[in-house]
Structure formats: C-alpha cells, structure tokens
Amino acid sequence: MPNPEEEAVEEAEIEETEVERKREVIEEEELKEERKFRERLLGLLKRTGKKAQDKIYGMRHGALWERGEPSGYAVFIILGLLVWLIQIFKYRFGTLPITDPWWYVLNAFVLLMCAVFSPAPYNTLGVIFFLEIVFKPWGLPYLQRTLITLLRTEPSKIVHMMIYLFTLPGFWPFWLLYGLRESRSRLAHITLNTYIIFIGVVFLFGVGELGYNLQMPRSPGVIYDPHTIFEGFHEMLNNIRMGFVGMWRGGTRWVIDTATGGLYEARVEEGEKEPLGITLEELMPANPLFYTDEEVIVWGTIHGRTLDKPVTVNLSCWVGQGENKVMGTIWPSNIVEIDVEDIKDFECRFEPGQLRAGNNIVFVGAEYPFTTMSYLKAYFMEETRLRSLRRENIDVFDYLEIEDREPRAVYTSGPVELSLATTKPLMGIFRDRDKNKFTPVLSMLVSGGWEGKLKEITDLTLSLPPQIETKSCYPEFEAAGKDSEGRNVYHLKQPITEELDQGRVFKCFMDITDPNALLGDFPVKVVYFRLTADYVYYVTSSISLTLYEPPEELEPVESEPSNSNGVDEP
C-alpha cells in the first residue's frame, strides 16, 4: 500500500512546481508590457523632439510652413521636377527646340522663385542662374564656340560635361539638391531621396550610353561644331530616358527595340520548317501487262499539307499531246479536298481501245490554289545618331550589338518562293518628317520553286506598320484600310497571269508618315514588312506503260476416236 506521507510530499512538490511555472509566465508578461511601454514612450519623445526641431528650424530659416509641412526648398524642387516632366512628355528631349520660349519661361520661373524665397547663399545662386537662363538663347552658342576655339581641339570630357551642367540648371539642379539636404521638412527629405533613387536607376540603365560624344575616341586636331555637341548631349539625355522607359516596360535591352514580331511572324516561322504543298506520288499500273482491248488503270496518291485551311485540288490525266491527246477519267472524283494534312488515293482510267499498242506515257496533273506567307525584318534609326557613328568609323551593328546584319525574308515552305528586300537593312530617318528626303523601297519577288508551273497570281496582300504607307507600286496595289493590329493593308489591283515563268518582281516606294511614332522610345526600331501571296499552281507526274495487241485465238485440234475400253487397237 502507498505511504500517505510520501504521497503528501509528492503532491506538495507538484504544487510548488506549478506555482513556480505560473510565476515565470507572469514575469515574462510583465517584461513584455514594460518593453512595449518603453518603446511607446521613446517614440512619443522622438516625435515630439522632431516637431520641436522642425518648428525652431522653420522660424530661423523662414520656412513657408511649420509642423513639418513643405519648406521653400521642397516647393522649388517640385517646380523643377515639373519642368523636367514637361520636357520629357511634351518635348521628348530629342525634339526639344532650344529657342522655345515656353521652355525658358518655365526654367526662369523656377529660378526666380528660388532667388526670392531661398535663404542665403541659395538666393544668390538663383539670381545668377536666372540671368544665365535669360541670356542663354544668345549666349550659349557663343560660349561653346569660344571654348572650342580656345582649346583648338575637342573639349575634354570634364570641360564638355561642365559646359552643360552649368548651362542647363533647370535639368541638373544640384544646388537645389543641396538645399533640400539642409531642409528639415519631411516632405523635402522624401522628395530628395526619391529623386536620388530615380537618378541612380536612370544612370544604372544609361551608363553604357552616357553620351558617346563624351566617351568615344576623337580625331586629333578637329574642331567640332557646337551644334554637334548640343545634339550629342541631348542624345545622351535621350538614352538615359529610354533606359528608364525600357526598365518601366520590362524590356531586357533598351538601346534597341528587340521586337520579335507577332502572331503572323510566328505562323510564318512555323510554316518555314514544314513541307507544305501538294505532291503527286506513287504512280503505278494496276496490272503488269495491258492489252489494247482492256481497261487501263493507273493508281496514284496525292499528298497534301497546308498551313491552316483545306485546299481543293483539280486532278486530270491524259496520254499524248496536242491533237493526239487522249483524256482519261479520275476515279472516284477529279475534285479532291485536301485537309491540313491529308493523303488521298485515286485511279486514272482509260476505256478499252482508247490507247494504242506500244509505249504510252500517262500524265497526271493537279491544279490547286495555295497561299505563301512571308515577312522581312528591317531596322530604322535616328539619322543624326547614325551619322555621328559613321563619322567616327564605328560599325553600327557592333555598337548596337545587332547580330542579324542582313535580315533575309522568311517565308512558309511550298511551291512558290516569296522574297522581300528593302533598300538597305538599316535605314536612317529624322524624327521630323519634313527633314526626311530618303524614300525606302520595298522589292518583292514571286517565283516558282518546285517542278511545276505558277499559273496565276490571284492576289498579293502587303501589310506595313501603321506609320508607313505606299507612295506608288508597280504593278499597282490599292489600299484596303487597316487590319486588327492597326497596320496598313494593300492588295494587288489586278490578278496576273502573264510572264510568270521566270517569276514576277513588284516594287513599292514607301512614305514614312510619322517617323517620331515609328521610332517610339528607342533610337533603333525593328519593323516587319509582311507579304501574303495567293496563287494557282500546277504540278504533274507521269509513268510509262507498254500496251500489247491482244493474242490471236488458236483453232481447236480434232483427236482420233478410241475403243470403248480405252485400250488402243494394234
């Protein structure tokens, strides 16, 4: 039996352990509450002290608002950023007119506000840069020309950069950034940090293109036009902006629009690798020997594969040519429907007596409509940038890391070759349409590629980017509006049935109606010219047969009678 004293001791120990555990839990909760109280108290003290500091600083430095609201510095930098955004979305940098009064008014207003409201020494800087902005339309070209003349050579990188850092204060407000750093306004600090992060991201994507006019090797002893420097600097800014746009759009490369085409191009590339078209195969006689008084039958198989829709094939068979031509009959029908991928068997039959004895060549022909799709990739580039690169003897394709230097036409396989070619693979255009004197030419060639005959070109469908139209074409095309992608569509005006043995060449002179929209946010734009040909093609196949005259019938030979028991008599 258990000892009562031992049981009492065990119960006491259990109770003591339970009490100790509860005490530890209570102590932990008290510590947590104490920590929370301390954190709340410290936060309250910190916020109170910050507000007091802001209030004292605002009274000392003449802040426009108290209690952490925007100070004069924040207002000025916000105005400067507003000017910057207007430059980005209104003028797009590359087309910024340097004598536009609107641009100078905005910059002058920001700088004048800085001069009036900023504490010293920023008000003095505001006055200086305000006067420089007003003087800039006449003074900047003179300043640049004077510096270049004095140096007698191309300015160094440092001099080149300093010229523009101090002649574009509305875009590079470093002195305003310093003022923001001195401000105690929370909004000013947030604005400053956001601006610095933004500039850092922009330069991260733009450092590789940070003004090739500043980094490329120059020819010694050459005096450069100040307008060339100005264009180069704006191209640098344009590159930086495009780097940010490319990052915002999720692009992997920003210096060139690496468009890979759409659904049309994908269908063409798919059809390029597949054997498309109609073929006649496996012609063979139904019997090893044929006589002139028998029906002659030739078996055959038609193989067909189309891109996306069925094709109706008209079959025929015959022997001989011209006046001696003898037509046979196709069984079960001379009209054969070929699905996307199909095989059909047929028979060519000649009635008894239709063919003469001797060697006969049986021809089987198949006439069918078919479609071939093609596209050509081409590059368009800003003409000013293209000229600058060529002046420095820089290979444009290497500079832009373009591997496909001479894009070739890609077309679906089939009986016809559909080729496209432009004046040159890389074409330079100005963003201003009035400056473009160059007229791109698109050449198209439709020619038979298989053993067979191109009988008719029923239609050609030309698809151009929305910003490109045709001036004139030969043979003539007519406009057919726009497709679902907004591309300009043109159709062949009249079907063509003549002079098709050696193929047919078509030419179209193009007009770039909106070069700025064509280039978009990239200095180099990849565009696709599309051409779809609808035509009638004719293929034949043959087999040689030898027909024989029927054998002559032999007369029966009479035998002598025998005795009844079947034994010959002696």
Q: How many helices does DSSP assign? A: 13
Helix content: 25-40%
How many discrete structural domains?
A: 4
| Beta-strand share of residues | 25-35%
**Average pLDDT level:** 71
Query: How far is the first residue's CA from the last residue's CA?
Result: 143 Å
Q: So what's the overall shape?
A: flat
Rg over CA atoms, rounded to whole Å, is 44 Å
Topology diagram in text:
Layout: H1 4-61, H2 72-91, H3 101-117, H4 122-151, H5 157-165, H6 174-182, H7 186-206, H8 212-215, H9 226-248, H10 263-272, E1 277-285, E2 290-291, E3 296-305, E4 311-319, E5 326-327, E6 329-331, E7 335-338, E8 341-350, E9 358-382, H11 383-391, H12 396-400, E10 410-411, E11 416-422, E12 426-429, E13 441-448, E14 453-464, E15 468-474, E16 477-482, E17 488-492, E18 504-512, H13 515-519, E19 524-548
Helix pairs in contact: 2-3, 2-6, 2-7, 3-4, 7-9
Task: Write up this protein.
The protein is of the alpha+beta class. The chain folds into four domains: 1-52; 72-248, no CATH class; 264-271 and 369-533, Immunoglobulin-like, CATH 2.60.40; 276-365 and 544-548, Sandwich (Immunoglobulin-like), CATH 2.60.40.10. It has helices at 4-61, 72-91, 101-117, 122-151, 157-165, 174-182, 186-206, 212-215, 226-248, 263-272, 383-391, 396-400, 515-519, and strands at residues 277-285, 290-291, 296-305, 311-319, 326-327, 329-331, 335-338, 341-350, 358-382, 410-411, 416-422, 426-429, 441-448, 453-464, 468-474, 477-482, 488-492, 504-512, 524-548. The strands form three sheets. Strands 2, 4, 5, 7, 9, 10, 12, 14, 16, 17 and 19 form an eleven-stranded mixed sheet that branches. A four-stranded antiparallel sheet has the order 1-3-8-6, with no helix packed on it. A hairpin with a 6-residue loop joins strand 4 (311-319) and strand 5 (326-327). The chain is flat. The relative contact order is 0.09.
